[in-house]
Amino acid sequence: MKVLHIITGLETGGAEMMLAKLVSSPYLAPSTLAVISLIKRGPIADLIEAQGIPVHCLNMTRDMAGMGGGVALWRLRRIVRAQSPDVIQGWMYHGNLAALVARAFLPTWVPVAWNVRQSLCGTAHDKILTKYVIRLNAKVSRYAQAIIYNAQISANQHCAIGFDSKKAVVLPNGFDVNRFRPDPGVRNEVRAEWGYASDIPVVGMFARYHPVKDHHSFLEAVRLVVAERPEFRVIMVGRGIDADNENLRKLLDAWELQSHVRLLGERTDVARLMKAVDVCVLSSAWGEAFPNVLGEAMACGVPCVATDIGSSAEIIGDTGVMVPPRDPQALASGILSVMAGGSAEVLGERARSRIVERFAIEGVAQQYADLYWSLREDYGRNGI
Fold this sequence. Notes:
- By secondary structure, the chain is an alpha/beta fold.
- The chain has two domains: about 5-175 and about 360-380, Glycogen Phosphorylase B (Rossmann fold, 3-Layer(aba) Sandwich); about 185-360, 3-Layer(aba) Sandwich (Rossmann fold).
- The protein is built from 15 helices and 13 strands.
- The protein has helices at about 15-25, 45-50, 70-85, 90-105, 130-140, 150-160, 185-195, 215-230, 245-255, 270-275, 290-300, 310-315, 330-340, 345-360, 360-380, and strands spanning about 5, 30-35, 55, 85-90, 110-115, 145-150, 170, 200-205, 235, 260-265, 280, 305, 320-325.
- The strands form two sheets. A seven-stranded parallel sheet has the order 3-2-1-4-5-6-7, sandwiched between helices. Strands 10-9-8-11-12-13 form a six-stranded parallel sheet, sandwiched between helices.
- Helix 11 (about 290-300) crosses helix 14.
- The longest helix has 18 residues, at about 360-380.
- The model has no long low-confidence stretch (mean pLDDT about 95).
């Protein structure tokens, strides 16, 4: 069985990382032909190619990704026909549309699976083109043989706007619980680099700079936490989270948080950094479906405080704290409660057990493999 994956891009993000983890698993790596990125090459391409899986980049711009372009279409046609897949898997809205186009280039009919990676809570904030692409997905969704969602709330929302409900399949994100695991030695090593003692409480936020992540509310919560517990320190990691970010610098200056907060920018050693924090915070205001960062932190034995968006509550369960979005006071209270009286260690142990039992990548990859085999058997190359 041969599977070809088509994704919008390979920048660092939840969908991209999930693709990299899946094609690295023993369940899917042998059947993965290649990965096609509609836009230019990103850092996740290196992770995929390290597994011996070729990555092809069509170098489209984001404004036209998935929408056409003569040269890109010609390259897509050439790559797809050379690969001759049994199943085509699209990732994200543009990649889903491209998967349908790719099938049209094949001399024989093959099944197409889609992968939707977000909820629709914040579509009012999306660009006009993005809204159009979502509507177009809904209109042509009946031509896909399966539509994978990583959260039930995402499936419900998309079906409500016209995505074919008969094709819906919910498969959660999976986590590498061997890479993401507690390590006291690494914890002490990283804290030494930061100049933090082992008993200093450290809050971590791992999220790119984007309005959806609501860094403003997070830093306002940090201000409230520091007012009560001045010893707290904070590290922030993600694309755009650095000294060049004028908006973040202004907030840190206005709230006198410069000595408490470190802006570490985009990093490739997130698993290592997570092992050194005591609590992970996700302050998203909308748009999350199944946030990877929560499962990764929990696998490292780090309890989480998160806004109640998407499937965050399903991931965290009783191992952390859920708060309403855009509520800095609730976020601050959640952080303080997790860190009170040594409860963070107990919650962290419980958090890791939850991820290992429910969301380990091996089990999720097996579900994907089973789905691909069923699509191959049910639809095959002779059509439906």
